[in-house]
Write a structure and sequence with these properties.
KFase/CYL, alpha/beta, 9-stranded mixed sheet, 11 strands, Glucose Oxidase, domain 1, single chain
Length: 226
Amino acid sequence: MKIIDLTLELYSGFVTDNDHLREHVLNKSKKDNDYSKSKEVEQRFISFLNQNGTHVEAPLHFIENGASVEQMKVEKMFGDSLVLDVSMLKELHDPITKDLLEEAERRQGVYVEKNDIVLIKTRKRGGGEEGAIETKGLDESAANWFVEKQIHVVGLDLPNVDRREHLESDIYQFLLSNEIYIVENLINLDQLPKHSRFLFFGIPLKLRNATTSPIRALSILNSQLI
């Protein structure tokens, strides 16, 4: 069994989208601020925007009265997974289409099935590089394809799942309204097998009324659970 960490590291000053605030992770402990007189106690205060880093979108983020993070179906966030590599099939400013995804299936010999967790590699190094903000995500044909396939989750090595051409967020609303969760800012997708399946785990925190949650995204290779 081999574990691949697909999660961006968070630290003070970190930002994954120019539209988002920078992370503010305080390294001062409670004893530094005289909260505790015990020299054996070390506690840290952490403050960050929940959309920075590797995270999952809850329906509430784009749908009025949608499910918030603590109401998400956590069983959808782990299970059988595959990665589709479209990095060599498109330019950065080209959207991810149904045709591209089906071509990746044919080239890799793996095919999307019902209840899958589908990861999409759009970058040569599989996430974490500069320029990801400008890279286009899914178009309508790809979103419709995933709904037809009845997958559980779509994850990308990008900070946004859509094409970023407008502010209506139609792709987000369409996927989330069909109970397909969205994971963004994955890394190390280049370390995943292209021709076989693996397990994916990305459990959100139990945050009441939250619209997104950071996750520790992991893939497990050569697992006997598949």
